[in-house]
């Protein structure tokens, strides 16, 4: 007897917004970026995920790693997804979900160049308590929901030890 894998449940806009409210830093330093990026590398290696990982703060790249199987195209996706976080102050997956909830798509309705912006999962805002969004942590190389979930898992783990 073969079992069919269950399809992944797509999170609702409300669930995605709750993630953003919950995953907030007290501070975010260069050392924090290194530790978070290293944690993401560790998680990705355990899964043999062919991803690129990027952490930016205030326009500066603080961390980057490209694991086996990733390509330069992943870096282009990272830049496009990160720009969505920088422009909207929300996770790239959440921005896309908000457009879908209105019965449209980001590409159809945002009026932004899709070669510059991508509301696909994998980029999450780095939000500091009392400050707001100061940067983004981004993963590219898996299907968009998996990219998003990998970042959220790493943030949950990182912030639970802080």
Automatic annotation (TrEMBL):
Coiled-coil parts of chain: none
Taxonomy, superkingdom: Bacteria
Membership in a protein family: Belongs to the UPF0303 family.
PANTHER family: PTHR28255, UPF0303 PROTEIN YBR137W
Protein name: UPF0303 protein GCM10019016_058160
Classification of source organism: Bacteria, Bacillati, Actinomycetota, Actinomycetes, Kitasatosporales
């Amino acid at each position: 007897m073969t079992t069919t894998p269950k399809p992944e449940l797509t999170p609702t806009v409300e669930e995605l917004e709750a993630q953003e409210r919950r995953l907030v830093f007290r501070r975010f330093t260069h050392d924090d970026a290194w530790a978070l990026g290293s944690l993401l590398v560790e998680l990705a290696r355990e899964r043999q995920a062919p991803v690129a990982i990027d952490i930016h703060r205030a326009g500066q790249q603080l961390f980057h790693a490209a694991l086996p199987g990733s390509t330069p195209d992943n870096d282009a996706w990272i830049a496009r997804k990160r720009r969505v976080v920088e422009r909207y102050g929300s996770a790239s997956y959440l921005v896309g979900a908000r457009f879908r909830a209105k019965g449209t798509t980001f590409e159809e309705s945002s009026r932004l160049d899709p070669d510059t912006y991508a509301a696909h999962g994998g980029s999450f805002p780095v939000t500091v308590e009392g400050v707001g969004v100061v940067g983004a942590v981004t993963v590219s190389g898996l299907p968009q929901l998996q990219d998003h979930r990998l970042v959220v898992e790493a943030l949950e783990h990182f912030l639970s030890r802080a």
